[in-house]
């Protein structure tokens, strides 16, 4: 079972905005990019002016980026994505609303055979470091 539709980050423009202006926190198996949503964001991409409107109180949206450098096998990459989604579902009630989050998985995640418990622990540490969890915002 994946994340609910309101909690999914899916548009290319949102991913670009997070990579362009978001803060970055690293751990052994993954990198977290986080961007606090503003009322209106304007960006110039590829010579085009784009305006995206986000509500500050909107639910946090999460995206997962995992390349073929992590593993050439789609089975391994999909397993890691499923484990990350489970970890995010556990942490979602504690995450402050109004964030755009992207997790980039490192190749070491596949080599170490990380399990959901490890992903949960690392994600929690990254979210605390980025001040995204409720107690730290």
Main sheet properties: 4 strands, mixed
Order of helices and strands: HEEEEEHEHH
Report strand order across the widest sheet.
1-2-6-5
The count of strands amounts to 6
Mean pLDDT level: 84
Low-confidence stretches: 49-53
Look at the helices and sheets and give the structural class.
alpha+beta
The 3D shape can be described as: globular
| N-to-C span | 28 Å
How much helix is in the residues?
25-40%
**Oligomeric composition of the shown chains:** single chain
Q: How much is the radius of gyration in Å?
A: 15 Å
Instruction: Give the percentage of residues in beta strands.
Output: 25-35%
Discrete helix count: 4
Report on the structure:
Strand 3 and strand 4 form a beta hairpin. About 4% of the residues have low confidence. With 137 residues, the protein is an alpha+beta fold. The chain is built from four helices and six strands, in the order αβββββαβαα. Helix 2 packs across helix 4. 34% of the residues lie in helices and 26% in strands.
